[in-house]
Amino acid sequence: MFVRVLRDFCRQTAAVSGRENVNRLIHIAVPLEKNRDRRSFLASVPRKDEGTEGEKFVFIDSAITKKEDMFPDINTPNMHFGGVKFSDVPVCHIKSSRNNTILHVTKPNGERIMIRSCGMEGFKNTRKGTNIAAQATAIGLATRALDFGIHTVRVTINGLGPGRMSSIKGLTMGGLKIISVTDDTPISWNPLRSRKQRKL
Amino acid sequence: MKIIIIQVLNHKLQFIIELLTLAMKHLKFISRTVLVRNENVDEACRILNRIMGSEGFLDQYRRTMFYEKPTQMRRRINYEKCKAIYDEDMKRKINFVLRKNRPEPFPGCY
């Protein structure tokens, strides 16, 4: 507001002094103007998608609905899902990194059955690191898995990337039944020295 | 009667200890796992994300992706301390302003 008043005042003085059509900003207003532009620009840029939807989300009805049966206990590995023991259900490993999403389907002992990644699906370069690519890849993998005879899977997610949630969505859209979701991100509280920071 | 109660308690304790030891081993599909209920995968994912976020797992992961220089760490920790103090004060102030001293604190609201 103050800046605008100053600017108008400046324009008036310029007009009074005899020169017409002179519209210029006085010295102090320019940097402020620039700053404001940048702020509005930053506000209009969409937030980076990390795929962690629901992290800063509070359920209002959390007190009403019971969530006790949503967490595993000792008996969970022996529970039956569609006639198969929980511990014998195939696993779908999702690794979602900044630039790509890789999906494996393995047997419970870790033997690989199939693998798909956004790059294999035909997305190249930066397009690999998008949630759309991840979803398409997951749908492709799900159809293949159904052909193979796999109908139910357990899911483990590794890493924070744009494909974190959308690949799970793609798996369900492809027709696979997901019975559990596990986070498998490697987190250490006394880590080795990691690589140096990215220069932006 | 007492013996029966003690036995039941013992049984429960054993159950809890067994579960804790399993969780301490970070067994896959026991720790950091949410079962899907009624084919509602979205809900399960959101619960998982929320728990991971509120326990500080995701923050720790983001922080350790790249090396944090000691100066940066000092700055961050000081900032967090200041913020905690400010938040506590502000919470107290808000509670003070919003305090109610009448028999029915919010008349007309049930």
Summarize the model shown.
The complex is a heterodimer of chains A (200) and B (110). Chain A is α/β, with parallel strands linked by helices and 200 residues long.
Helices, strands, pairings?
The complex is a heterodimer of chains A (200) and B (110).
Chain A: H1 2-16, H2 29-44, E1 80-81, E2 84-85, E3 91-96, E4 101-106, E5 112-117, H3 131-148, E6 152-158, H4 163-174, E7 177-183
Parallel strand pairs in A: 3-6, 6-7
Antiparallel strand pairs in A: 1-2, 3-4, 4-5
Chain B: H1 2-24, E1 33-35, H2 41-54, H3 57-65, H4 70-97
Low-confidence spans of chain B = none
What fraction of residues of chain A sit in β-strands? 15-25%
Q: If helices are DSSP runs of H or I spanning 4 or more residues, what is the number of helices of chain B?
A: 4
Oligomer: heterodimer
User: How far from one another are the termini of chain A?
Assistant: 33 Å
Shape of chain A: elongated
Principal-axes geometry of chain B comes out as extended
Largest sheet of chain B: none
Order of helices and strands of chain B: HEHHH
State mean pLDDT of chain B (0 to 100 scale).
85
Major β-sheet annotation of chain A? 5 strands, mixed
| CATH topology heading of the domain at 83-181 in chain A | Nucleotidyltransferase, domain 5
Count helical runs of chain A. 4
Q: What is the C-alpha radius of gyration of chain B, as a whole number of Å? A: 23 Å
Taking strands numbered 1, 2, ... along the chain, how are they ordered across the largest sheet of chain A? 5-4-3-6-7
- Count of extended strands of chain A: 7
Computed structural class of chain B: mainly alpha
InterPro entries (chain A): Ribosomal_uS11, Ribosomal_uS11_sf
Organism (chain A): Aphis glycines (Soybean aphid)
Family (chain A): Belongs to the universal ribosomal protein uS11 family.
GO molecular function (chain A): structural constituent of ribosome
